[in-house]
Design a protein that fits this description.
By secondary structure, the chain is of the alpha+beta class. The protein has helices at about 10-35, 40-60, 125-150, 165-180, 190-210; strands at about 1-10, 65-70, 75-80, 85-90, 90-100, 105-110, 115-120, 155. It has a four-stranded antiparallel sheet, covered by helices on one side. Strands 7-6-5-8 form a four-stranded mixed sheet, covered by helices on one side. Helix 4 packs antiparallel against helix 5. The radius of gyration is 23 Å and the shape is flat.
């Protein structure tokens, strides 16, 4: 049994903080125009409003980061975030680990349809701590699968989601419309998007062929 302490990002609070900061900017500009008109220098007011918005974000930035703990045993994972959750390995349907340039994403999907998602954005916290934890988790869960002959899916891509079909279909329609209603140089946009879209379709059908599509 091994214990870990890691930092993670409060995604909901992050979006809220960004939203409020933008709202302060927009509301400030509207109030200035409504209440003061041309009585104050516009450049000075804009600088003050932008400064207030940025200051509000920076003063609350530390609230984005939280600390969690976890313990891994041979057949169970215990995670303590806002509350402690015991995760027996035999109750898992899939897990997803992503190491990106902006941090680490860790998702657990259960047989009953519930899920746990932990994100560590390296702009707001030390994602190396979460990376170390989930790397050891992957070793533990793969050993458990081998010893118990149990099928717990390791998702290799975000395209292994069933709803990806609808998202790819929507973007495909938009790209087709883009080719039909745009011309150079704007045509470069649908051309560049279509390349990424092609790779998306390939990844989706690869995961479907492997039987790895899940809801998450």
């Amino acid at each position: 049994m091994k214990s870990y302490t890691f930092e993670y990002t409060r995604q909901g609070f992050t979006y809220l903080l960004f939203g409020v900061s933008v709202a302060i900017l927009g509301l400030g500009l509207w109030l200035f125009r409504t209440l003061f008109g041309n009585t104050l220098p516009a450049g000075l007011v804009v600088v003050l409003i932008i400064g207030s918005s940025v200051a509000f974000f920076l003063l609350n930035k530390h609230r984005i980061r939280k600390t969690g703990t976890a313990t891994i045993s041979v057949d169970e994972l215990t995670i303590a975030l806002n509350q402690t959750v015991h995760v027996p390995f035999n109750g898992l349907k899939y897990y997803y680990i992503y190491f990106g340039k902006n941090g680490t994403v860790f998702t657990l999907g259960f047989l009953d349809g519930k899920k746990i998602k932990i994100t560590a954005n390296n702009n707001f916290c030390n994602d190396e701590l979460l990376k170390a934890f989930v790397s050891d988790f992957q070793v533990a869960i793969e050993n458990y699968k081998a010893q118990n002959q149990i099928n717990i899916i390791r998702l290799e891509s975000v395209f292994a989601r069933k709803q990806t079909l609808y998202i790819l279909s929507l973007f495909t329609v938009l790209v087709i419309l883009g080719f039909g209603f745009t011309s150079m140089p704007v045509m470069i946009l649908p051309i560049s998007v279509s390349v990424s879209l092609l790779f998306g379709w390939i990844s989706y059908f690869q995961q479907k062929r492997k039987g790895n599509l899940v809801d998450f």
